[in-house]
Amino acid sequence: MTVISANALGLLVLVALARASPSCHDPRAVPSGVAEWAAAHSSAAAAVARMSQQDKVSMVSGIGWDKGPCVGNTAAISSIGYPQLCLQDGPLGIRFGTGSTAFTPGIQAASTWDVELIRQRGAYLGAEAKGCGIHVLLGPVAGALGKIPQGGRNWEGFGVDPYLSGIAMSQTIEGIQGAGVQACAKHYIGNEQELNRETMSSDINDRTMHELYLWPFADAVHANVASVMCSYNKLNGTWACESDKAQNSLLKKELGFQGYVVSDWNAQHTTSGAANGGMDMTMPGSDYNGNNVLWGPQLNNAVNANQVSKTRLDDMAKRILAAWYLLGQNNGYPSINIRANVQGNHKDNVRAVARDGIVLLKNDGGILPLKKPAKLALVGSAAVVNPQGINACTDKGCNTGALGMGWGSGSVNYPYFVAPYDALKTRAQADGTTLTLQSSDSTNNVAGTVSGADAAIVVITADSGEGYITVEGNAGDRNNLEPWHNGNALVQAVAAANKNTIVVVHSVGPIILETILATPGVRAVVWAGLPSQENGNALVDVLYGLTSPSGKLVYTIAKKAEDYGTAVVRGNDAFPEGLFVDYRHFDAANIEPRYEFGFGLSYTNFTYASLKITSTATSGPATGTTIPGGPADLWETVATVTAVVTNSGGVEGAEVAQLYLTLPSAAPSAPPKQLRGFAKLKLAPGASGTATFNLRRRDLSYWDTARQQWVVPQGRFGVSVGASSRDVRLTGSLDV
Ligand SMILES: *[C@@H]1O[C@H](CO)[C@@H](O)[C@H](O)[C@H]1NC(C)=O
Ligand SMILES: *[C@@H]1O[C@H](CO)[C@@H](O)[C@H](O)[C@H]1NC(C)=O
């Protein structure tokens, strides 16, 4: 019985910065990051004391759109040896880079549920940004969280569950910042759709704000994120970048955020409102025509007129400088070269994430993995590289050819691209397989390509992105949850001619699969997500069983779009669904999903046994002193759950064991189950491993709106451990 490797997730997320300090080896005993921020702020205060008002204004004001080497730039301040600061997109690599890696989108990283791969992805993102001289990398993304399945930018983030998103945020930030680069948690907050994002108001009630949308940002702050980007939308009618409540009360006071808030590009609307509302840096410093400069000289005037206090200006500069000192960027930093070749071996991480993020949804009769078929057919325009070129469309604003990422400012250039056909051709040659291809979505003559083949693989897609580009009529958000390019009809035509049809889906988010699943001859559905540059290689790894699929869905796939209970909103969004998004809604409303959150098949089987629960948790509010992320005791482990998982099948594989908590009734109107732990175990056939779930005080808490505190309710907590949010294998309870 051998455990090949086991990742226990939960509290024990050490901060790279804290780890370097000998006094901080136990994150439960010594609040992580407190001493480091204090030192950084004292260096910053000393520097600010030497700066003129003009220096301070220039430190907080971008120099204007398209005026420097990066998407955001501030002027150098020679009196304190401060450089021209470079802020660059984005969450999956170096935007406009020509020698950098196109990492997998956040949604794919989350689908692996593998903290080591997620952290390595962050470390490589940081290494590449540093190699390019970028001071601030504009990611990772926790907003959009993804409450609207059609939301255009959901794919940039880590899925719709705040706990999973929070773990992925902290791992990514620690990876990026461990490399010496400032991370930027975005978009803060409530930017859940592209339609009207620059005019609409997101009106989120206090409890929902805390338990869903703020949650992953708390993880980001706890990981000592250097910067946070305020979003385009309004909150309760006030611009997010001017929201005293969101920026001053929640982020800086309640979460103890020590870094700075930077505006999304042109998300600032007034000079004093933004300054007094808690924004610390404006980007890019002008509108896209070089006009409408709201800080710079305007801020100087506002300070002189006492509309913005000198203390507030000092605080902005101190926060920006503290982040710079915190990351050690004052000690020699590479000069800016966005086009540097910084790829190293990072493609290995792309392939691993692309592969391990693939979710096997259906595999009737074990048609997969493929075993040296004599004849194989491949169908779909998404099976081949975009005929116009891998980077032909500006900011990936097209869905032509194989899909690797969505579109918008969160996209990057591919250094190379391996499409399904490229990788399958190589494999077919090695196996002596005859591979036939139809690289279009035409249903007319597809029977000729696929009939007689041992299996037919049909590749379909769904794409989305940022609203400044419209692709095939989709203005960022998707118009519907159907496959693009007539995917249902294409699958039907293929399956009519070949009873061993394997459907591969490359998608930004859920699509409705009912037509496809009702089609006789569809034997397998491989949910391949957004694999970036390693698209084909990752697919072949799984199709041929070089690796057993181990990804799990990070959102629900519904039977029909209306089942989600959320959709793109026309006017302001009152967030009427509250806490009940995705599986929280399906569970509460008793709606059967097609494939539930957390679902994913394997080429092997896993059994669960020996649930053990130990707890020292006490009821009542968290009352600790505020550290980055909130009250210190909120982050302490108060209960540990273990379960033994055994690979009972015939091949090596990895299982993502998941823990869901049901709060006692003392927590009013809570969702039936909430993810509060997961562990990915890689197991040889016959081997067992222990999944360990460390539950922190926050994992047992709900936000008590009357007390304005996180409270552990008294009573019996239900503990469900299993293979998905609905495939519960072990249950137990925990009394507090
Ligand atoms: C929005 O309004 C609700 C209801 O009054 C309040 O609970 C919440 O804190 C407000 N949020 C912000 C960001 O202003
Ligand atoms: C997994 O278990 C199912 C029944 O629960 C069985 O049909 C299948 O053959 C098993 N697969 C493997 C790979 O052991």
Automatic annotation (TrEMBL):
Domain Fibronectin type III-like per the UniProt entry, residue ranges: 655-725
Protein origin, superkingdom: Eukaryota
EC numbers, comma separated: 3.2.1.21
Pathway: Glycan metabolism; cellulose degradation
Reactions catalysed: Hydrolysis of terminal, non-reducing beta-D-glucosyl residues with release of beta-D-glucose
Localization (cell): Secreted
Presence of keyword Hydrolase: yes
Major location (coarse): secreted
Keywords assigned: Carbohydrate metabolism, Cellulose degradation, Glycoprotein, Glycosidase, Hydrolase, Polysaccharide degradation, Secreted, Signal
The keyword Secreted is assigned to this record: yes
An example Gene Ontology biological process: cellulose catabolic process
GO CC terms in record: extracellular region
EC top class named in words: hydrolase
Signal peptide location: 1-20
Stored Pfam families: Fn3-like (PF14310), Glyco_hydro_3 (PF00933), Glyco_hydro_3_C (PF01915)
GO molecular function, a single term: beta-glucosidase activity
Family the UniProt entry places it in: Belongs to the glycosyl hydrolase 3 family.
UniProt protein name: Beta-glucosidase cel3A
